[in-house]
Amino acid sequence: MLARMNSKISAQTLRFVRRGQPLALHHVAPDRTLLEVLREDLHLTATKEGCGEGDCGACTVVLAQAVNGQLQYQAINSCIRLAHSVDGMAVFTAEDLSAPTLKAGASPDLHPCQEAMVQCHGSQCGFCTPGFVMSLFGMYQNSGGGQGITREQAQVDLSGNLCRCTGYRPILDAAEKMGNLPLPDGCGVDEAATVAALKALKPRQNGDENYLRPTTLAALLQARTAHPKAQVVAGCTDVGLWVTKLHKRFDRVLDVTAVRELQRVETYPHHIAIGAAVSLTEAFAALVKERPQLKTFGQRFAGLPVRNSGTLGGNVANGSPIGDSMPLLIALGASVVLMRWKKTAAGGEIAHRELLLEDLYTGYRTNVMRADELLCWIKVPRPGRHASSAAPGRLKQASAPSGGSEPNAVGSVGAEELMRVYKISKRFDDDISAVCLAIQMTLNDGVVQQVSIGAGGVAATPARARQTEAALRGQPWSADTVMAATAVLRAEFQPISDMRASATYRQTVLGNLLQRFWLESQGLQGINLESLKTLEALS
Prior knowledge:
Layout: H1 2-5, E1 12-18, E2 21-28, H2 34-41, E3 60-67, E4 70-77, E5 90-92, H3 112-119, H4 129-142, H5 151-157, H6 169-177, H7 191-200, E6 211-212, H8 217-226, E7 231-233, H9 239-244, E8 253-255, E9 265-267, E10 271-275, H10 280-290, H11 295-300, H12 304-309, H13 312-318, H14 325-331, E11 335-342, E12 349-356, E13 361-363, E14 366-367, E15 374-381, E16 416-424, E17 435-444, E18 447-456, E19 463-464, H15 466-472, H16 479-492, H17 503-521, H18 535-538
Parallel strand pairs: 6-8, 7-8
Antiparallel strand pairs: 1-2, 3-4, 3-5, 9-10, 10-15, 11-12, 11-15, 13-14, 16-17, 17-18, 18-19
């Protein structure tokens, strides 16, 4: 830690709002985490470091940004979030919730999310408690004072927080109870003061700084051209691990998340376009709106704090072979839009190219992007439209990909589209996949007309199962066809053995998942973990 504190890497000022007041911290290096700043510079030690990799939730804090004059709250992991990425936001920690006491020796009034944890006996050793409290606080604020929070919602929103002592029942009790408790004076958020303080923090004009966070697409691409060796970050959920676990240092960081053009999800007749700065939470909400069957997978992608920080564009650009979004997007026939700044006689313009997502990767965490290119958009065909068998559309304009030439609709009247994605991991919530398999299929009169299959965890890159697709396409959708395709799928990949699963297990599971897809298409229920209910839920 001392080596990091005494670093010679150039630093700059970090500004955020705390307790309704602007705060400026000077000389913050570009690769310091928010947790380091909170604990070491501000001595806010209620925010704990547990795993240092965004896995346990002990470091959870809540960020707020003003949107149309109202604050929007998000719980995030501070241990892997780079500090400068919260510049211009409001930051809430466990110390900010209770009302300060004026009497010596008196206990402060507690916020309802804290009081509910006390009344429901939701804490034992207490190490994880501040993180749980902050996730509850985010739920409380986003629900208008804890109103209407169901046990099911609490389980989803607390999926990024782990407890080793008490078990989760009393903590879920607290989530349901906090909305019925009074809010003491001094405990609530002064939203007007916070919004005013946020407005007073003028956006930084990036010059020759070490943490670059442009607000326009043109400025982002120009910065990429000027600093091709800068470390690109979006939500920092993977790069943060390189800092905390691999002890990597970065002289300069280029953050894409403030670019206004890339913060949007745009809907067109044949596809949706998801900007590279769109969080995983918002991206999966858009995908689930199009395909409701993806809801459980979206919630299992990671814990909520990771989904709130991470971006779909960052997950795709990172290209991890166990990244869960890529098999899904490959199966959906998604394409990616790469952009760069092209110099012209008039000064410069945005240039772009588009390719199918599976064609982006060349090897383990390597891809076809040039040193001056960035992945800016992900285009996902809407239900009934599939781009994997057609040339990807061209863009009409660089800043808003509307799709140019669109692929034709798949199938005919009476065609049936089936879509499922399966995640196999050691832990149901907040865990990395051993195997991920996504299947998109169109049946016409009982015959497989179109099929695309994406697989993760079985090769050096996220991969498309082309041989298995060929074995299915044009065949009757029957048990015999599935049995033959299962053998092809198991033989198509040569996975490795690692801490998550053996190669043999992965090959076996691949085939089993295809068989599960077949059984589900025949109406069989109760064969997935998500279909099971605990005795408590049934009571």
